[in-house]
Write a structure and sequence with these properties.
disordered N terminus, 5-stranded parallel β-sheet, DNA Cyclobutane Dipyrimidine Photolyase, subunit A, domain 3, 3 domains, mainly alpha, 23 helices, 46% helix, Rossmann fold
C-alpha cells in the first residue's frame, strides 16, 4: 500500500515526501528553468542557453503526426527540407523506432514511399547494435583512418573559434551558433561541420564528438560518435569531405552569398583538388581491426526480443528508469504498473560529460510526464536506497547497450536481484548479423524493417 500511495502522489505532479526528491511541480516553464539553473550550476556554467524544443511524449506525438514520408524522401538533404525533428525523442526512447516506422507506413499508400525514412531509422538501430558490441570502444578509432595522416597530426582540443562561431566562414559559424542555441543541427550540417573540424582543421574526431554531446538534444555516444568516425574514415571506406558546390546546392546558397571569405575559402575548388590538398599521402587500407572483426557475426541477443516467455519472478520490485526509455509506454511501467519508479541524475557523469543546461531541461521535461521520483547522486546507491525504502524484492529495468548502464546494473546486482526487460525492437532478425558496415546489416533486415510491427511477427 505504501508503494502505491507514493506512485499516485508522483503521478499527480507532487513530490513523494522524501527530502532528497527533486521538484516535480512548476507553475510554468520559466520556473522550471530557474530551478534547473540553481540545481545544476555546472551545466549552466557549461552553457545556460535553453531551447524552444520541449521534452516529453505529448510534444513527440504532435511532431510524429506531422511527418510526411514522401516529402522527407524528396527533400531531406536540404537544410530546409521536410525532416521530422524527432531525433531527440528517439534518442531518449520517448518514441520507439518501431512506432515511427509504423506511423510512416500508415501515412503512405505504398510502402516504398516511406522507404527512405525507414532506412534512416535503420541507421539508428544499426548504431545502437554496434554500440552494444563495442561499448566504450565507441570512443576509439574502430579502424585505421584512410587519410594517410598519423594520429599525431591531429590536435586534441577543439579550437575556440569553432566553438564560438568565429571562424569567419559564414556556414561554419552559423552551424556552430545553431548547435549552441538550439541543440539541433540538420544531418547535412553535422556532416559539413564534422568534416571541417576533422579534415580542414585537423582536429581529432573525439573533440568534435564531445562538443556535439554537450549541446545536441539527441546526443548519444552511439549515433553521434559512430557518425564522427564515419566522417573521419575511422569507421568508413574514405574520409568525408565537401565543397562549395555541395554546400550551395543543399542550402540554396544562403551562406555563401554574404560570406566575408567568399572566393577565398577552403571549399571553393573541386573535390579532387581538396582531397589532394588535405590528404597528400592518402592510400587505400583494408578496413579491418580486431574491433571491427568482432562485428562480423553478432548473435541476436534475445533480451532485445519483444516476446517474453514469462515476466520476471519479482512480486514487489522498484523500477529503475534510465535515459534510453523516457516514455509512459516503458516496458517496465507496463509489466509492473503499480511499482514505484525512480530516475537518478548521475552527478559523476554530469561532472565528467559537460552536458549543457538545454539537455538537462529536455530530459527533465520528459521525466515530468512519467510516474516516478527524481533524485540525484550515485545511481546504484540511490536505486538501492529507493528499493530499501519500499521494501522491494528486486529492481526492474529495460535493456540498454550503454556500458554505463551495465556497470551500474552489476553494482546493484551485488545487493539486490535485477530483472532486465527487453526494449521495443525495430526489427527482430532470426540469425546473426554482420555489423561491419551498415549495408551488410541493411541487406539482412530491410525486408523486416519495411513491415509494420504486427506484420513482422507473422513473417
Amino acid at each position: 500500500m505504501k508503494s502505491a500511495i507514493a506512485v499516485n502522489a508522483v503521478a499527480d505532479g507532487g513530490n513523494s515526501g522524501n527530502s532528497t526528491d527533486m521538484r516535480r511541480f512548476f507553475r510554468n516553464r520559466a520556473e522550471l528553468i530557474d530551478y534547473l539553473r540553481c540545481a545544476f550550476p555546472m551545466a549552466a556554467a557549461v552553457d545556460d542557453t535553453v531551447t524552444a524544443t520541449v521534452g516529453g511524449r505529448r510534444a513527440a506525438e504532435a511532431l510524429l503526426e506531422q511527418i510526411d514520408p514522401a516529402r522527407y524522401a524528396a527533400t531531406r538533404n536540404h537544410l530546409h527540407g521536410a525532416v521530422t525533428r524527432l531525433s531527440p525523442y528517439l534518442r531518449h526512447g520517448v518514441l520507439s523506432l518501431a512506432e515511427v516506422r509504423d506511423v510512416a507506413l500508415r501515412k503512405v499508400d505504398a510502402a516504398w514511399k516511406a522507404a527512405k525514412l525507414i532506412n534512416e531509422l535503420g541507421w539508428r538501430d544499426y548504431f545502437r547494435r554496434v554500440y552494444g558490441v563495442i561499448g566504450g570502444g565507441v570512443w576509439r578509432d574502430l579502424e585505421p583512418i584512410k587519410t594517410g595522416l598519423a594520429p599525431s597530426d591531429y590536435a586534441d582540443a577543439l579550437p575556440a573559434d569553432i566553438a564560438a562561431g568565429e571562424t569567419g566562414l559564414a556556414c561554419i559559424d552559423a552551424f556552430s551558433r545553431k548547435l549552441r542555441t538550439t541543440g539541433y543541427l540538420h544531418n547535412h550540417a553535422r556532416m559539413w561541420l564534422a568534416a571541417y573540424v576533422v579534415h580542414f582543421r585537423r582536429v581529432r574526431w573525439q573533440a568534435g564528438a564531445r562538443w556535439f554531446l554537450t549541446h545536441l538534444l539527441d546526443g548519444d555516444p552511439a549515433s553521434n560518435n559512430l557518425s564522427w568516425q564515419w566522417v573521419a574514415s575511422a569507421f568508413g571506406h574514405k574520409p568525408y569531405i565537401f565543397n562549395r558546390d555541395n554546400l550551395e546546392k543543399y542550402t540554396d546558397g544562403v551562406y555563401c552569398r554574404g560570406c566575408p571569405l567568399r572566393g577565398r575559402c577552403d571549399f571553393e575548388v573541386g573535390y579532387g583538388e581538396i582531397a589532394a590538398r588535405l590528404f597528400p599521402q592518402a592510400h587505400a587500407t583494408e578496413p579491418s581491426s580486431s574491433t571491427v572483426e568482432a562485428l562480423r557475426r553478432v548473435e541476436i541477443d534475445r533480451s532485445d526480443s519483444s516476446a517474453m516467455s514469462e515476466p520476471p519472478k519479482l512480486k514487489n520490485p522498484v523500477l529503475w528508469i534510465h535515459g534510453d526509455n523516457l516514455t509512459p509506454h516503458n516496458p517496465a511501467f507496463r509489466a509492473f504498473p503499480a511499482a514505484p519508479a525512480i530516475w537518478v541524475w548521475d552527478d559523476a557523469l554530469l561532472q565528467h560529460s559537460r552536458i549543457s543546461l538545454k539537455r538537462i531541461l529536455f530530459i527533465y521535461e520528459c521525466l515530468l510526464e512519467l510516474p516516478l521520483v527524481i533524485r540525484r547522486g550515485d545511481v546504484a546507491t540511490e536505486v538501492l536506497r529507493f528499493a530499501a525504502e519500499h521494501r522491494a524484492d528486486g529492481v526492474v529495468a529495460v535493456a540498454s547497450p550503454s556500458p554505463g548502464f551495465k556497470r551500474r546494473r552489476r553494482r546493484i546486482e551485488q545487493t539486490a536481484p535485477v530483472a532486465i526487460l527487453p526494449d521495443v525492437p525495430f526489427v527482430e532478425p532470426s540469425s546473426p548479423l554482420d555489423l561491419r558496415r551498415f549495408s551488410r546489416y541493411w541487406r539482412k533486415v530491410e525486408h523486416l524493417a519495411m513491415q509494420p510491427t504486427a506484420a513482422q511477427r507473422t513473417l
